[in-house]
Specification:
With 340 residues, this protein is of the alpha+beta class. The chain folds into 2 domains: 163 residues, Ribosomal Protein S5, domain 2; 93 residues, Pdz3 Domain. 31% of the residues lie in helices and 31% in strands.
Length: 340
């Protein structure tokens, strides 16, 4: 029987199969695993516009924010975890709660970023003596317990405004209204999600530490409608998450004439609350490696475990732990004068 493949054609077929196999290994995502990768530090000044501010002036130093590249890992990255330096493999359930798609998670992350920008501007302007008003508007969902009643039904950045028709002005109202129900009760929450309002029905569960107490498995914070006395605009080009809040607040001060960085390149990570508290964030390992590779001079990190982890990966980079916005300002002011 004659062969339809000459040696040359057979070799081409083999090469094609090898190329397809390599493509699958290098490019095909492993659906149940994500990878965290370091990214470079990004200057904040070009992203911020403040009414009456100076704008980016090209002066030495500057405030830089840090982020993490998050995507689905390829099969090869999953098989060889050390392939990407500074990376971590993370199971899908740690990234997306059950029933939540990548797109829903991304939109939630963008809402977190939007809120962090408003809070950052408010904190910075209060530091400068401006009057900022904040009106309570509900219970902001910041975290959801896996496999709890809220898992797959509520999302981070959802704002609960009513429970069974009763007004919820904040976390205390949410807890008080839930305590009126025995565990196993059905409740209906009115939820503001982005620009939409929806109703979510849940069945409460027993608190494992206090069996008579009903829970839905969320960590709520105060949601507020913040009114700024001057216009502050921040454009991060669809980067999500709350961890750049501290960096934004520091750069708003710079825009309005305060010499915060004092000529240093300052990498900053940390979420910020309306009272100026600096809150812990994730991806510290990747952010520290990214800061180190970017050649910044110092790195501000939330005090505690975040700072301890940053020091483990900092090499020669100076890590400065901070617990509040004012402490961040004071610690930068205490740096030795930078030679011209």
């Amino acid at each position: 029987m004659r062969s339809f493949l000459s040696p040359g054609r057979l070799g081409a077929v083999v090469l094609l199969l090898l190329a397809v196999t390599a493509g699958v290994l290098f490019l095909a995502p492993a659906s149940d695993t994500y990878i965290f990768l370091p990214d470079e530090a990004h200057p904040v000044a070009p992203l911020i516009s403040v009414e009456g501010g100076k704008g980016a002036d090209g002066a030495p130093g500057g405030i830089y924010y840090l982020d993490v590249i998050v995507r689905r890992a390829t099969l090869l990255e999953r098989l060889i975890p050390s392939l990407r330096k500074g990376s971590d493999l993370v199971p899908a359930e740690a990234i997306n709660p059950s029933g939540v798609s990548d797109e829903v998670r991304r939109q939630s992350s963008l809402r977190q970023m939007t809120r962090s920008q408003v809070v950052a501007a408010a904190v910075a302007l209060r530091e400068l003596g401006y009057e900022v008003t904040a009106r309570p508007t509900g219970a902001l969902i910041v975290e959801i317990v896996p496999d709890a009643p809220a898992d797959g039904k509520l999302q981070p950045t959802d704002i609960v405004t009513d429970l069974d028709g009763n007004r919820v002005r904040g976390p205390a109202d949410l807890r008080r209204l839930l305590r009126r129900k025995p565990p196993g009760s059905s409740v209906t929450l009115t939820v503001r999600r982005g620009g939409e309002v929806t109703e979510v029905s849940l069945v409460t569960a027993r608190d494992p530490r206090e069996r008579s107490r009903p829970v839905i498995g969320v960590l709520p914070e105060q949601a507020t409608d913040v009114r700024l006395p001057i216009d502050v605009r921040i454009d991060t080009n669809k980067v999500g998450g709350p961890s750049a809040g501290l960096a934004f607040a520091l750069d708003v001060l710079e825009e309005l004439g305060r010499d915060v960085d004092r000529g240093y390149k300052v990498a900053v990570t940390g979420a910020i609350d309306l009272d100026g508290a600096v809150l812990p964030i994730g991806g510290v390992r990747q952010k520290t490696i990214g800061a180190r590779r970017s050649g910044v001079d110092v790195m501000l990190v939330p005090a505690g475990e975040n700072a301890a982890e940053a020091r483990r990966h900092a090499g020669g980079l100076r890590v400065i732990p901070v617990g509040t916005f004012r402490q961040a300002i004071q610690k930068l002011a205490a740096l030795p004068a930078r030679a011209a």
